[in-house]
Every structure is written in structure tokens, then in C-alpha cells.
UniProtKB/TrEMBL annotation:
Protein name: Putative phage head-tail adaptor
Top-rank lineage group of the source organism: Bacteria
Region named Disordered: 109-134
Organism name: Limosilactobacillus antri DSM 16041
Cited Pfam families: Phage_HCP
InterPro entries cross-referenced by the UniProt entry: Phage_SPP1_head-tail_adaptor, SSP1_head-tail_sf
Amino acid sequence: MKLRNMTERITFYSVQTGVDPVTRQPLDSAPVKEFSCWAEVPKLPIREFVQNSSEVGFRKESPTFLVAFKLPKPVQPNWLIEWRGKNYEITGMDPDYKLRDLSKISAQEVVDNGSDRGSGADGKPGTLGENRRG
């Protein structure tokens, strides 16, 4: 494992139901910060870039994160990842059980289809809201 390549900070959030402490109204989905870690976001190999040239899109819409095999908590597939101010849902996980050094996590950018496109629970762009704990 090359630690010098892990230059991106990502944060994992679980989405849980809860109660707003101010209004005492139930919240449908309150993101709870689980932990942060360093990750590597490898570039797309040229072979894959040429094969997928007919698909228009940006690499940052579906990044792959390489994280340490041993993390503070086991990552759950229904968690969200915040990276560079954007939110991503986990689409696949591939831990390396042979070498036990890295885990590969595939993700897809979460896009809201509402009128406040690109904004989080607090109305600010790219944030998960003020309901963070931890």
C-alpha cells in the first residue's frame, strides 16, 4: 500500500431517521458522520477511457476510492461518501482479502431532482446538512 498516493480526504455518513431538536418534528433522513479517512482516487486508464468514449460524462460523477483495508468501522453499503463538497452513494465494494491492504469502493454522485438541485439538507450546495454529529 502506497500511503503517499492517498491524498484525498473522504467522509462516510450513515443516513438515519431522527427528530429535529429544535422543532421536534421527525426527520426522514438525518445524515450522521461515521468517520473520515484518507483515500486514493486513481485516474482512469487510457484503455477504459477509449472504450467508454461514446459515453459522455465526467470521471468525478462515478469515482473509485481506494481506502485502507482496516478502517475504524466496517463500511456499510447504504452509507454516503462526501468528497470535495459532493455526495456519493456506494455502488460497489471490493475488499482485497488476499493482501488485506486496500479496499476498493465504487461510488456514484447523488443528484437531487428537486428545485434546489445540488443542495444539501440545509440548502447549501454540496453539503449533507447541519444534522452532523461527531
